[in-house]
Amino acid sequence: NPTGILGVHRFLQRVYKMATNDKRQTTNDKKLEFLLHKAIKKVTEDIENFRFNTAISSLMILFNEMEKTPQLPITKYQVLLKLLAPFAPHLIEEIWRNILGNKKSIHLESWPKYNQKLIKEEKFELVIQINGKPRGSMSLPAGLSDEEVFKEAQKTDIWKKWVGDKKPQKTFY
Q1: Which of 19, 30, 62, 120 has CB 3.0 to 4.6 Å from 99, enough for a Cys bridge?
Q2: Please, what's the b/e burial string for 99-133 (b: 16 or more CB within 10 A of its CB; e: otherwise)?
Q3: CA–CA separation, 112 vs 130, rounded Å?
Q4: pTM confidence score
């Protein structure tokens, strides 16, 4: 879509501008680490399945978080560049070699790998839908069985208001 070019252009300008910043130190930001590994997984899977728009979207989410980080480690920025290289090869090569001073091409670097333990969600948002309409949501710990999720949903005021003591005809999770 040609109208989306301006947004992508602004995004790439921001990526280029970050390369010239001196915010490169070590920091232990768990949210950034989570988003980084989640983006690696998402981009890898999306490229394999030819879903390029969602891959770029996840890179934009990651980059927005990187911009908020007061002291971004260069290694995390380099991972972003590796993930972005298939989509903007010439610009990323320019940043990689001429601004960051790497000798070898970014396209000869190994593809980043994600750590499954770092992207494990501890909670999830359950949307409660009754009679085909969303009635509310609740936060639950990850890893619950179908029966446990159903029991938790039955305890909510939403359930009591819309279902009451009636037995539902069909439930699914």
Answers
A1: 19
A2: ebebeeebeeeeebebeeeebeeeeeebebeeeee
A3: 42
A4: 0.70
Q: Cα 13 to the chain's mean position, in Å?
A: 21
Nearest one of 72, 80, 92 to 29, comparing CA atoms: 72
Query: What is the residue whose two structure tokens read 């999720």?
Result: 149
Tens-level pLDDT at each residue, the chain (173 residues): 677 788 899 999 999 999 887 655 555 677 888 899 999 999 999 999 999 999 999 999 999 999 988 888 889 999 999 999 999 999 999 999 999 999 999 999 999 999 888 777 777 788 888 888 888 888 888 777 888 888 888 888 888 888 888 888 777 77
Q: Which region holds residue 76: left if phi is over 0, alpha if psi is between -120 and 50, else beta?
A: alpha
- The set of residues, in sequence order, having a beta carbon less than 8 Å from that of 19 and lying 6+ positions away, is 77, 95, 99, 100
CA distances from 85 to 8, 47, 69, 120 (A): 14, 12, 22, 26
First and final C-alpha spacing in the chain: 36
